[in-house]
Specification:
mainly alpha, 7 helices
């Protein structure tokens, strides 16, 4: 999936540029591609490809290839963690690990699964971009202090959520 340049389109391209270039809150477009799907998944946010404008911004192939392992990890994580599609555990595992997207002899069923996997990943990616932009850039005034405070609050809340999950997990493990 991450073999050639990646293109953000429409409002999502604008949001990525705002997060990276205008606000400077995220270092690279590639970093958005890595973290936004996870944010979308964790906050239950999905999005739909926006075709209402010609805005685009891209990630070049060489950047994608350098981070291919991390991108594929994120992609597989999304497939494994999503339960909204109604896929059984064994099907999610098959989709994440058994289908070789680069194979020459894919069945029509496998090709359809790949399309569905990519749509799922993309929906969380777009939802995560929307969430990050809304949360960190707010009303688009790009007041540097306000954005830094929002970023700090977001990271703090995210950390607290993770700690709560760790404590819940510890309680479950102790009860077994």
């Amino acid at each position: 999936m991450f073999q050639r340049e990646f293109l953000f389109r429409g409002k999502h391209a604008l949001y990525v540029r705002n997060l990276v270039e205008t606000a400077g809150l995220i270092q690279r477009n590639l970093d958005v591609l890595i973290i936004a799907p996870i944010i979308g998944l964790l906050y239950g946010k999905t999005g739909v490809l926006d075709k209402s404008s010609n805005n685009t911004t891209k990630i070049f192939t060489d950047q994608l290839l350098k981070e291919k392992d991390l991108l594929e990890f994120t992609y597989k994580l999304i497939i494994l963690a999503d339960t909204d599609k109604g896929w059984q555990d064994n099907e999610r595992i098959f989709r994440a690990f058994r289908i070789d997207e680069e194979a020459d002899n894919l069945s029509e069923k496998d090709k359809q699964m790949i399309v569905e996997n990519r749509q799922l990943f993309e929906s969380y990616l777009l939802g995560g971009i929307e969430y990050l932009h809304e949360r960190l850039c707010g009303d688009s005034t790009y007041d540097r202090d306000m954005m830094v405070n929002e970023l700090y609050d977001f990271i703090k809340e995210f950390h607290e959520d993770l700690q709560m999950d760790e404590h819940e997990l510890q309680d479950i493990l102790e009860s077994v």
